[in-house]
Amino acid sequence: MGSFVKLFNSSLNIISRQLTLPVSNGVNLQFVRALPHFVDIPKPGEKHRQYRRIVHYPEDGKYTVKPLDNTHLAGRDPVTGRVVAKGIGGGIKFKYHWIKFERDGPTEDVPPKEEKVLQILKCGCRTADVALVGTGKELKYILATENMKPGDIIKTSKFIPRIPVRANEGDAYPLGALPVGTIVHNIEKYPGCNRNFVLAAGCYATIIRKFDDRVVILMPNKREIALLQKCMATVGRLSNIDHSKTPIGSPNRNRELGNRPRSGLWQRKSGRHGRKIKRPPPMLLQGPPKEQKAAPMKLNINKIS
User: Fold this and answer.
1) How far apart are CA 275 and CA 116, in angstroms?
2) Where are the alpha helices (DSSP H) in 91-189?
3) How far apart are CA 171 and CA 27, in angstroms?
């Protein structure tokens, strides 16, 4: 009888460990040793991009061109330590170059701000090359374009003239100041936004038309987005255009890039499976986020008998 009870308890523990209820409101309910335990499922890419690394920025928050230290996360959540992205792990450790995506310039009809390209260098934490530019006593890193080289002069202005500007590669202007057909990258979602479009190596977007106070751009994924005219963008195609065409070459090289090996069971579908031809998604009207109204407050008065 005692052996039967032990066998029953062991089987119950195994079943309880493997039992998982469906997800509800971002919470996964699991049974651990026959006791309910709530586990918060981390959302990938929300605070720590791709769960690949944590960059140690200066405590005072001031921008610096000094390469920053970082800590590899290896696909784990930095708080709970749970594995979120199984394909990330290992890799050579590189210093992080802090990119200043915001391009400041005059907002009136005056000569644009000029900066000189001092150096083009590789950054192991991103696919595109990085350019060190300076003006006066200010130094900063920006994303390098395809044909950018040391000694080039780049211009920045936030003024939208009546006639479109004939900009050179590396110049930054509002979308409303550039003519139709211009190739751009590092595009703001809305004026003053820190999260920009088109930052990967060799990518670019194209201005295809304008209407009202918006400019329609064609993204690398062939989707059309209508942005405000005051959104800043940098002219030209990003550097390292052969990044997506260069073969990795060996499994060792793949581990150096920070990718863990896969099981080998998954195989890409070949031509015999056919493909689905879908219509392109509708044009997206991008703008600043809407202000959320506060919920009305309800006051209840308890009646005293």
Assistant:
1) 48
2) none
3) 47
Decide: 244 and 234 in contact? Cβ < 8 Å.
no
Q: Nearest 5°: CA angle at 188, between 183 and 194? A: 140
95-130 burial, b if ≥16 CB within 10 A, otherwise e?
ebbbbebbbebeeeeeebbebebeebeebebbbbbb
Supply the DSSP string of 164-185, one letter for each residue: PP-PPTT-EEEGGGSPTT-EEE
Do 142 and 208 touch, CB atoms closer than 8 A?
A: no
Q: How far apart are CA 213 and CA 206, in angstroms?
A: 17
* CA neighbor of 243 nearest in space, from 150, 146, 171: 146
- CB crowding 233-258: b at 16 or more within 10 Å, else e: bbbbbbbbeeeeeeeeeeeeebbeeb
Distance CA 39, CA 143 (A): 40
Place of tokens 């971002």: 26
Per-residue pLDDT tens over the stretch 61-104: 899 999 999 999 888 888 778 888 888 888 899 999 999 999 99
Q: Any idea which residue has 């959302």 for tokens? A: 43
**Cα separation values, 186 from 26, 100, 203, Å:** 32, 11, 10
Which structure tokens are listed for 267? 């195989």
User: Is residue 24 within 8 Å of residue 40, measured between CB atoms?
Assistant: no
Mean pLDDT rounded to a whole number for the chain: 83
Is the entire prediction scored with pTM above 0.70? Answer: yes
Amino acid 300: pLDDT? 75
CA distance 244 to 240: 9
Segment holding 227, helix H or strand E: strand 224-228
